[in-house]
Give the backbone structure.
Amino acid sequence: MTSKVDEALSYEQARDELIEVVRRLEAGGTTLEESLALWERGEELARVCRRWLEGARARLDAALAEGEGDGEEDAE
């Protein structure tokens, strides 16, 4: 479950933190417990990013549908 703090993150903030989490995991040198915590945080951040992107896609689809509807009225 995503926390209220995560919900307040902008797409860019979540993406940048996710990049840092991935960098730390790829670098290695962390304990198993630290790696698991980083992985879990990365999953949370990925969900935040996915919600932002899904919302953006919905807005684009709505704008495109509205634009198509406007075009039909002009053609009549």
